[in-house]
Each structure stands twice: as structure tokens, then as C-alpha cells.
Write a structure and sequence with these properties.
The chain is α+β, with helices and mostly antiparallel strands and about 130 residues long. It has one domain. The protein has helices spanning about 1-20, 80-100, 115-120; strands at about 35-40, 45-55, 55-60, 70-75, 110. A hairpin with a 6-residue loop joins strand 3 and strand 4. The radius of gyration is 20 Å and the shape is extended. The termini are far apart.
Length: about 130
């Protein structure tokens, strides 16, 4: 009986490895990890970056009490590096978590200035 269970486990592991190393799956990116944020409103959020293009970020957001939804954050500021655009998107995501309850979160935010980034670089982000 034990030997049969061991063989079944090995078979499952081999199938996963075959799926992973299949030529069609080599170019797919692994799923992004789910992150958590405890907002000032008292709600613990979970979020995951679903889509990222230069200046256009889409996050999947959910809490224990609410189903998953998405939020798109646009950063159409020319001259910013990609990491600065992403930093602005995440800072505005966290600010939305802190200011709104889950039912009232906006579906789209547009970032028009770098004030949060300037506060972050000077160390005065509240």
C-alpha cells in the first residue's frame, strides 16, 4: 500500500514537471505574487498586479468581505522612469486603500503630478 502511494506521488510530480517544461509553457511568465496591505480604514486588502504597461497598471483587489475587483492606475507623466511610474501607481493605490472603504474604491485613478514621489524622496510621506 505504501509503495503504491509513493508511486502515485511520484507520478503527480513528474506530470507537473512535464507540464512546466513543455515548450509552449516556457515563454509564459509565472503568476505574480499576492501582496497584503492593512489600510487605515481597518480593512486588510490583498492585491496583485495583473497588467503593467508603461504608465498603465491594473491591480486585482479583494478583501475577506468583498469579492475581487480591479483598479486601473494611469500615470501619463512624460519623462519618468518605469520604476518611478510604478512607485507612483503603488503609492496612489495605498492612498486609495487608506481613504476609501472597499465598496467605494474607484475603478480608475489618474496620477497627474509627482507630489507623492517628491514626498517619498524627501522622507515626509504621511
Amino acid at each position: 500500500m505504501r509503495e503504491t502511494a509513493w508511486r502515485v506521488k511520484m507520478f503527480r510530480i513528474l506530470e507537473k514537471l512535464r507540464h512546466w517544461w513543455h515548450p509552449q509553457n516556457r515563454h509564459t511568465k509565472p503568476p505574480r505574487r499576492v501582496k497584503q496591505y492593512a489600510a487605515l480604514t481597518g480593512f486588510p486588502y490583498q492585491y496583485q498586479l495583473m497588467k503593467s504597461a508603461p504608465g498603465d497598471y491594473e491591480f486585482a483587489i479583494w478583501t475577506a468581505a468583498h469579492t475581487a475587483r480591479s483598479m486601473q492606475i494611469l500615470v501619463p507623466i512624460p519623462g519618468l522612469e518605469a520604476r518611478d511610474r510604478y512607485a507612483l501607481a503603488k503609492l496612489n493605490l495605498f492612498r486609495a486603500f487608506d481613504e476609501f472603504v472597499p465598496a467605494d474604491l474607484p475603478y480608475r485613478l489618474t496620477v497627474n503630478d509627482t507630489a507623492l514621489l517628491d514626498e517619498l524622496s524627501s522622507g515626509t510621506v504621511s
